[in-house]
């Protein structure tokens, strides 16, 4: 379980506990109310007994006020706990966890590296290592075949992220299946660039949905 999972569980457990104590205090206050009603019905001409009854009434009324204050306080705490738990769950359903953030960054840099290698190929400066570098990048993209979005995300967010991961995997397979030196063929190169652009489009949609700062990633590269 992540830290946020623990926060959600503890907050919810606290809310339930506070609510149970609130119910208990309400029940006790109701009982004291019945006791107070009985005391008010008692009539006596004896002065000492009247004073004792007054003290008992005041004691019961004081307890009832005390129980009411504590019940309201605990109810507020229960609401706060439930709200904190609900917000934590909502936050996890709409934001990337650490693992997905790292995977997204890796995918971004892998695509950038492929584009850089293809730019070198077009300029004729790729050298003998170009094919090997592209093969390595293809294998790295292939690792996205076993990646799935975090289950805590909402279903729409999961579908969006999984579609992006799948497109990265497919691009890796696409790259690995091409003939060595395909980048020297203008038609094949254009075809691959078109596939790459589709993945970039998926990436752009993911970045927009999760408010990823692409400019910051470019600076860190």
Describe the structure.
The chain has seven helices and no strands. The model has no long low-confidence stretch (mean pLDDT 88). It starts with a helix and ends with a helix. The protein has helices at 3-41, 47-94, 98-123, 129-142, 155-177, 186-209, 214-220.
Kindly summarize this structure in a few lines.
By secondary structure, the chain is mainly alpha-helical.
Write the layout of secondary structure elements.
Blueprint: H1 3-41, H2 47-94, H3 98-123, H4 129-142, H5 155-177, H6 186-209, H7 214-220
Helix pairs in contact: 1-2, 3-4, 4-5, 5-6
- Rounded to the nearest angstrom, the distance between the terminal CA atoms is 31 Å
> Treating each run of at least 4 consecutive H or I residues as one helix, how many helices?
7
Global Rg: 33 Å
Order of helices and strands: HHHHHHH
Uncertain residue ranges: none
Shape: rod-shaped
Helix percent reads over 70%
Strand content: under 5%
In round numbers, the mean pLDDT is 88
| Strand count | 0
> Biggest sheet, in brief?
none
Protein structure class: mainly alpha
Give a quick set of tags describing it.
7 helices; 82% helix; mainly alpha; 221 residues
